[in-house]
Design brief:
- The protein is of the alpha+beta class and 944 residues long.
- Helix content is 20%, strand content 28%.
- The strands form 14 sheets. A 6-stranded mixed beta sheet has the order 11-28-27-26-12-13, with helices on both faces. A 6-stranded antiparallel beta sheet has the order 18-17-14-25-22-21.
- Strand 19 (485-488) and strand 20 form a beta hairpin.
- Helix 4 packs parallel to helix 5 (136-151), helix 8 (246-252) crosses helix 9 and helix 12 (336-348) packs across helix 16 (640-649).
Length: 944
């Protein structure tokens, strides 16, 4: 007898459409196997030959958490390049390194959680470094480029599968898992959804990750917008991956559901497909899903829908077609091309903020480089481990010669004297102690423990001189002479053991707290004070040591010494991405830390030719008038120092542009939790003050002329063209920017809004035409009276220039559109959330599943205004649909209000009742509602 070869199952047939193959594989999986796929770490199904799969590989600006990789500039720095083609190439390089690293380490995943498209609405947000811009158009352009690079160009198989973060309206770390962003419909559609929508519609996105916060009172992990908006933007199956621990937050911190079975079922039916919770342990999530199935909260069809979306991504990644996957053999890792690209990206990200002519520096310039970041190449939470490293000091040494460069870090050199008269002493470390944190790679670097293989600090009669750096808000680091930072490991002992501050809970930061005639030294990570014991120096609950801080040398004195003998001083200031402004921690001020302000002032006092080079993850407020020049760059990755030195030397003319407004003062900022960019006049779109530096700002070493503006409106497009000429003497890049402004709008519109941009390289004297085809939909706004976008007819300014404020050309076009009309109130009534203006209110969830209501903040009082309401021939009564308790006053100008009071509280916040009162109105009027007390208003109706 001849044995027959079993037929190839359809899901293994590469000639069939993916949809049919997924159907076949789904039909072969048992319910338990499908449930197991819902956790981040999906196990193998050996009987079918299906391998294990994990969602989530961090790749924000290089492969992160998995050991050495090429490190590109932070995302905000990539945004500052305003260069989509460059960013596409960066995404391509990152995805190739993902593939190459996976070939040797199966822990590296192909489902990459990147990019972050949260808009940089507020500069104090701790994760500012992760986004691209405050503008939705620029953000989506850069994100689209990055996702196309990550995806690859093959029509069928994806190199990696990008997931956008973090859905939705997420710009605060303070209480991020329990705070709610109140987002009115106009802000939702014109601002927060746009960056996601335009990126998804571009076709290279595999999914999204919901954010930790709530929007309008409802956690993002049960957001109806996933179904109502996200999944309508593309025909592709989108995989929605939860953020880490967020499914449990629905019960544990948010208390939105009573049980985890209810919460898991609600998240799954809302659209979450993969649950990132409890690390690699899937048992809790699978048990919750089984419990929800047993209780009838879920059906197998619900599970199938989520598994189908995951399988769709896996098929696109070529998992089931290894012989057809064009990316399977990708081995490009740390190539010369990737190194050159990292330097190019770092160079293009540098923004010249101010220059009185001191830059570029002449080749024979004697330079003093000073500051806490002058000899640093900082990484952030989402960086890989450096293979190559370049600091500003090293870059200047290389470019100008070490003999022409003097250096002073500007730290305070200190001794810590104990009450016994001895001093803190750092013992010598073994020679084999040179280990870089994270070099081994970790699926969860938060679990990396501090080192215990080095001797703890002791005390002796001489002590060890430590370098003290104050990073603001009295948070400081202490560094030993060998360059290692004092750190606390799990055993509580202090050791000089860390190459850099870092970790989910940073163990290298301290506070000096005045106590009597000395100071207590509090370790920030544990909250405990430092104590001296017979076994060594450690943190403890009691027996805190009282230290005398002895300053051997002030940082300002060292800075003054080297600055006075130089032709030019370069002060390199900024932040450490792991301290004061990072994931889990928002900033409290725009100001530079006090120690860095003192360093800057010392340099200026010693040498008026002072250049400030800010290397930071976010904007700062400073006084630029007394500086000869100022530059900003995000932490620029492995080539940061080389790039900065080349810009300072004029080898590269700076052409980065600010991707967000730099405000002059903290007083210019709204509350961090105020997400109403329209009402609070936030970002360059609405800000009415004078910024320190405007959106789109950036200077050059040459000059550019703009001319020949022409506009033609045809069909659904506005064709805009103009010329740009390099009128200077150096080849350089210019970023030409096109903005619009509605001249006579019926509602508050942006004072200007980016329509398009282009970065172009021009030789001296070269002239080039720039043209844009702008869809007329770019001129629309969300009309709450109609529940959709509307192009308002009338004049629109078109503004062309080098920034949002540096306008070189302008013209006005008159567009046809749909005229404004009063909103017909009867018979459908008014959704409370569709107000035109508000004060003292916030939007909350009408039900746990969908819909919005409005409530006074903290149960106080608030007002809603609805413009141009058409009551027709007349009304005789008004009704309100409310829950809770309190009063609603409904009024027209000059008329007494109708007062509707809910004296007895409803059973719960979602138990609505209808109240009525006489109300006479006819014709068109503005309607005002005053809300008092802890009530929720969902709907206002009219009768008669």
């Amino acid at each position: 007898m001849t044995a027959h070869t079993p037929p190839t199952p359809p899901f293994r047939d590469p000639h069939l459409p993916f949809a049919k193959r997924i159907d076949d594989l789904l039909s072969r999986l048992t319910l338990d196997e499908k449930v197991s796929f819902l956790h981040q770490f999906a196990p193998a199904v050996e009987r079918l030959g299906v391998g294990a799969f994990r969602t989530g590989q961090e790749a924000l600006h290089g492969v992160a958490w998995m050991g050495p990789a090429t490190v590109f500039p932070q995302a905000v720095g990539l945004g500052a390049t305003w260069n989509e083609e460059l960013v596409r190439r960066v995404g391509e390089a990152v995805s190739k390194e993902v593939r190459a690293m996976r070939a040797r380490d199966e822990r590296v995943g192909l489902n990459v959680w990147s990019p972050t498209v949260n808009l940089l609405r507020h500069p104090l947000w701790g994760r500012n470094e992760e986004g691209y811009s405050e503008d939705p158009k620029l953000t989506s352009a850069i994100a689209t480029a990055y996702t196309h690079g990550l995806r690859g160009e093959h029509p069928t198989y994806w190199r990696t599968a990008p997931v956008l973060k973090h859905w939705l309206a997420h710009n605060n770390e303070t209480d991020r898992d329990v705070t709610s962003s109140s987002v009115r419909p106009r802000v939702l559609h014109e601002y927060d959804l746009r960056a996601f929508r335009e990126t998804v519609e571009a076709g290279a996105v595999a999914g999204v990750m919901p954010a930790y916060n709530l929007v309008n009172g409802r956690p993002n992990h049960v957001s109806p917008y996933l179904r109502e908006h996200l999944r309508t933007w593309t025909d592709e199956e989108l995989l929605v991956c939860s953020d880490a621990g967020a499914p449990s937050n629905l019960v544990d911190s948010e208390h939105y559901f009573d049980t985890h079975e209810e919460a898991t079922a609600a998240a799954l039916t809302a659209g979450v497909d993969s649950f990132t919770d409890h690390g690699t342990d899937s048992s809790k999530i699978t048990a919750r899903v089984r419990g929800a199935l047993d209780r009838g909260l879920l059906t197998e069809a619900d599970v199938d829908a989520a598994v189908r979306r995951q399988l769709s991504v896996r098929f696109r990644l070529g998992e089931f077609d290894p012989h057809y996957d064009p990316h399977a053999g990708t081995g490009e890792f740390d190539t010369p091309a990737h190194r050159a690209l990292a330097q190019e990206a770092a160079e293009q990200a540098v923004v010249l903020l101010r220059n009185d002519g001191v830059l570029p520096l002449a080749p024979d310039t004697r330079i003093a480089v000073v500051g806490l970041l002058a000899d640093e190449c900082k990484l952030d939470w989402y960086s890989g481990t450096l293979i190559h490293r370049s600091t500003p000091l090293e870059g200047l040494y290389e470019r100008f010669g070490a003999e022409r460069v003097a250096f002073a870090e500007g730290v305070d050199r200190v001794l810590l004297k104990t009450s016994a008269g001895t001093y803190l002493h750092v013992p010598a470390a073994p020679e084999a102690a040179d280990t870089v944190r994270g070099a081994e790679g970790a699926l969860d670097p938060a679990l990396l423990a501090g080192r215990t293989d080095l001797p703890p600090l002791t005390t002796d009669a001489a002590g060890t001189e430590l370098a003290l750096a104050d990073w603001g808000e009295d948070v400081l680091t202490l560094r030993a002479p060998d360059g290692r930072y004092l750190s606390v490991a799990e055993d509580g002992f202090l050791r000089a053991s860390a190459d850099q501050p870092g970790g989910w809970v940073v163990q290298e930061t301290f506070r000096l707290e005045p106590h009597g005639n000395g100071h207590l030294l509090r370790h920030v990570g544990t909250g405990r004070h430092v104590s001296v014991t017979a076994e060594g120096v450690k943190v403890a609950e009691d027996n805190a040591e009282i230290f005398e801080l002895i300053v051997v040398e002030r940082g300002e004195d060292a800075v003054t010494r080297v600055a006075a003998g130089a032709d030019v001083v370069v002060v390199v200031a900024g932040n450490d991405p792991h301290i004061n402004g990072r994931e889990t921690e928002d900033r409290t001020t725009l100001r530079l830390p006090a120690q860095q302000e003192r360093i800057l002032e010392a340099a200026r006092a010693a040498n008026p030719r002072t250049v400030l080079a800010l290397v930071s993850a976010y904007p700062y407020a400073f006084e630029p008038g007394r500086l000869s020049a100022a530059l900003w760059t995000a932490h620029g990755g492995q080539a940061a120092g080389t790039a900065l030195a080349r810009v300072l030397a004029g080898d590269v003319s700076p052409a980065g542009r600010l991707p967000q407004t730099w405000y002059a003062d903290d007083a210019d900022l709204p509350d961090l939790l105020d997400y109403d960019v329209i009402g609070a006049r936030q970002t360059y779109l609405y800000f009415e003050g004078a910024p320190l530096f405007p959106f789109g700002h950036g200077l050059s070493y040459t000059s550019f002329g703009y001319a020949d503006l022409a506009v033609a409106v045809e069909d659904d497009l506005a064709r805009v063209s103009f010329t740009v000429t390099n009128t200077g003497e150096a080849t350089a890049d210019e970023v030409a920017q096109l903005y619009t402004r509605a001249v006579d709008p019926s509602v508050t519109r942006p004072r200007r809004e980016l329509l398009a941009h282009r970065r172009l390289t021009l030789a001296p004297g070269e002239r080039r035409e720039v043209s844009f085809d702008v869809p007329l939909s770019a001129f629309t706004f969300w009309d709450v009276s109609r529940g959709g976008r509307r192009l308002e007819p009338g004049p629109y300014d078109l503004l062309v220039g080098a920034s949002s404020e540096d306008v070189r050309l302008r013209t006005t076009v008159t567009l046809d559109g749909d005229p404004a009309a009063p909103r017909p109130v009867p018979p459908r009534g008014l959704a409370a959330v569709d107000f035109d203006e508000q004060s003292g209110t916030e939007i909350v969830d009408r039900t746990k599943v969908s819909g919005d209501a409005v409530t006074p903040v903290a149960g106080g009082s608030g007002e809603l205004v609805y413009r141009a309401c058409d009551f027709g021939a007349g009304t005789t009564g008004v009704t309100v649909e409310v829950a809770g308790e309190g009063t609603v006053e409904v009024s027209l100008a000059g008329a007494p209000p109708a007062v509707l009071t809910l004296d007895t509280a409803t059973a719960g916040p979602y138990d609505y009742t209808t109240l009525g009162a006489p109300f006479a109105a006819e014709g068109v009027h503005d309607l005002r509602l005053r809300l008092r007390g802890p009530l929720r208003l969902a709907l206002v109706g009219f009768s008669g």
